[in-house]
Amino acid sequence: MKKIVLILIVVLIGSMQSCTEYLEESNPNNLSTDTYWTTLDESESNLTSVYGGMLDSYILDLEREPYRCDISHPQTRGSGNINLSWVPWYQQTVQFDDSDLQRRWESKYRVIWRANQVIEGLNSMTDVLKANPRWKQQMGQARFFRGLMHFYLHSEFNQGKIIIRDKVPTTVAEYAKALSTSQEVMDFFRADLEYAYANLPAQMLPKTRADAGAAATILGTSYLYEGKPLLAKVYFNDIINNVKGDYGYALQQDVSKMFNGLADFNSESILEINYADNIQTEDNVFNEEGFTNRMARWTAPQGKNLENGETLGGQNTMLPAAWLTYEYVKEPMDTKDVRNHTNGLLTGPMRTIPLRASQSIAVVNDEISPYYGFKGPQVTNFGGTFFSYLKKYTSHAIPGITNEFQTGTSPQKSPRNFVVNRLAGVYLMQAECLAKTGDYAGAVTLINKIRARWGLKLLGPTSTAANDYDGKTYNDETSIMNQLMYKEYPLELSFEGFNTRFNDLRRWGVTAQRLLLLSTEVYSVTDYTYKTTATPAKTAVRKNSLLVKGAGNLQFTEFVESSAAWSAKDLGYFPIPQNETLNNSSIK
User: Fold this and answer.
1) Domains of the chain: which residue ranges?
2) What per-residue confidence (pLDDT) applies to 384?
3) Phi, psi of 271 (to 5 degrees)
4) Confidence class of residue 3 from pLDDT cuts 50, 70 and 90?
5) Are strands 72-74 and 318-320 parallel, antiparallel or unpaired?
6) Which pairs count as long-range contacts for 502-509, CB under 8 Å and 24+ apart, including other chains?
7) Fewer C-beta neighbours within 10 Å, C or N terminus of the chain?
8) d(CA 470, CA 484)
9) How many whole angstroms separate alpha carbon 541 and alpha carbon 550?
10) With DSSP H G I counted as helix, E B as strand and the rest as coil, what are the percentages for the chain, rounded to 5?
11) How many CB atoms lie within 10 A of CB 588?
């Protein structure tokens, strides 16, 4: 389907499933540095294995993570109808012996292990090789990923008290390291990220490689997470205004290139995990370091394409939450933006749903956007409480694709990329920093740049000849933060990044109250009338397919169980997994 830019991986430890297995067997690839690290081409091959480790779906674990916050509901709505596989994640009851939790832990330490091997190998090289610019670039990338993985682990495990792995352990004694304090971990991963920030170019070629912009983004994010907006905004300002160098980032203005698989690594991509369906096609769908992922299977509709009878290939397991769907569809559009008029004229009829909604989710009343070769209501019933589907990880808009079997040998072998960080997210984080440091006008300006590219009404009290505004005043931290927390962040970045929504709700201290509020909101569904593809077009009805707010047919609420189960006691961190505590004598 698409070309993959990532170099074919030389897998050093691809079969290793436990962090301790490499201590129990001889690894023929783990050669001593004096016999292997002789050229920068050899070290480049090993560096590529670090990127290969990032293909592991458990790094981001998008199959489970959205259930831990407020953006997704597991399958059928209504109390007692939750898919049992996702209950521990939805109800915040994941235990230390959970096998998927163990994989989340191991996948990140596996990348750290490989990065350490590259770092040690590069450090063993001659002074002549160290003087080569490629040496610094390779070291910068290795340290970036080592820092990134420690940042991820710090964000999700044990209140940030994790194990710092700064070398490849060669003995059981070296493996048995104690936990470090949260501050020690932050100091460690920031040192790695600062090295990458200082030594990587602003733009790396190929674009699939990490660069200084990626390092600056994670550094800024780490300070924002720590509650230090003054420090965070320095890095975000650098990225937005190209202070240190030309990063080449720009908000993508052609929104047809957002979330449809047709423009990977677009102009606002900062960190993106690259998949493809034409490499190692023999891999099993559960090969966590294969070049495909399973997200299309979880997010595409179940059943057949109603227009051509083909099986769509989805399981509609992961569904956008009702409130999220409703907010997407109801965002106020700018009447002065010609893109919001179906005939291309400002005097013409308005779109049925906004551009941001149509690119992010599929709903029954979107009769404009392509969806598996047709339009939404023509393809699937949207019946009952399956009133919306996530688009960001399906191949719905690729020309000629009418089901998920056509992008690979299985719907569970999707080539869609995972976008981890992009410029719009930096804009929103910088807007938060500005709001918290008193620059309210600057915060609104950044938010409006994102809203303008989607053709949405801008924030502000007055309208202009060029744009509509919402008529509200945003001149204090509270008003801007409410807009960011409950509108801009979730609608722009839903189902993206590393635990993004969960981390945000936790650091804002609003998770419990947010879930409680949502557990009281009532939604229902009603019929929707649409036009068929017949010639001439006929009128047809999709029963119980259109989401409405309030009591009505098949009414329901969400997050009842999640709200009841939420506990602020551990602030939503995972415990250290059982395998680590059993195999590491320094952890009790």
Assistant:
1) 1-187+509-521+557-588
2) 80
3) -140, 120
4) very low
5) antiparallel
6) 502/65, 502/68, 502/69, 502/572, 503/155, 503/225, 505/69, 505/70, 506/571, 506/572, 507/224, 507/225, 507/227, 508/481
7) C
8) 15
9) 22
10) 40, 10, 50
11) 8
Return the structure tokens found at 464. Answer: 């202009």
Higher pLDDT, 83 or 42: 42
Rounded to the nearest angstrom, the gap between the alpha carbon of residue 87 and the centroid of all alpha carbons in its chain is 21
- Helices and strands (H, E) in the chain, number of each type: 22, 8
H/E segment holding residue 525: strand 523-531
Residue 125: its pLDDT value, please?
95
pLDDT for residue 410? 83
The per-residue pLDDT for 569 is 63
Q: CA 207, CA 63: separation in Å to the nearest integer?
A: 26
Question: Does residue 413 carry a pLDDT above 90?
Answer: no
Which residues, in sequence order, are bridge partners of residue 529? 541
Q: How many residues does the chain have?
A: 588
Question: Which one-letter amino acid corresponds to residue 358?
Answer: S
Instruction: Give which of 177, 124, 118 is closest to 145, Cα–Cα.
Output: 118
What are the φ/ψ torsions at residue 63 (nearest 5 degrees)? -70, -25
Q: pLDDT tens digit string along 235-257?
A: 999 999 999 999 999 999 999 88
DSSP string computed for 125-190? S-HHHHTSHHHHHHHHHHHHHHHHHHHHHHHHBGGG------S---SHHHH-PPPPPHHHHHHHHH
**β-bridge mates for residue 113, sequence order:** none
Task: Give the single-character DSSP code of 577.
Answer: P
Quote the CA–CA distance of 505 and 559 in Å, as a whole number.
Answer: 15
Q: How confident is the model at residue 77 (pLDDT cuts 50, 70, 90)?
A: low
C-alpha 294/C-alpha 317 separation (Å) is 12
Q: Where are the alpha helices (DSSP H) in 179-293?
A: 182-199, 212-225, 229-241
Q: Could you read off the pLDDT of 192-213 as tens digits, one per residue?
A: 999 999 999 999 988 899 999 9
Is the predicted pLDDT of residue 26 greater than 80, yes or no? no
Mean confidence (pLDDT) of the chain: 89
Please tell us whether the domain made up of 1-187+509-521+557-588 is placed in CATH 1.25.40.890. Answer: yes
> Which pair of structure tokens corresponds to residue 458?
């801008």
Nearest to 91 by CA among 113, 64, 115: 64
> Tell me, what's the pLDDT at 528?
96
Element (H, E) at 422: strand 418-422
In which residue are the tokens 């990140």 written?
A: 108
Cβ atoms of residues 298 and 312 within 8 Å:
no
CA distance to 121, 134, 411, per residue, from 8 (Å): 20, 19, 23
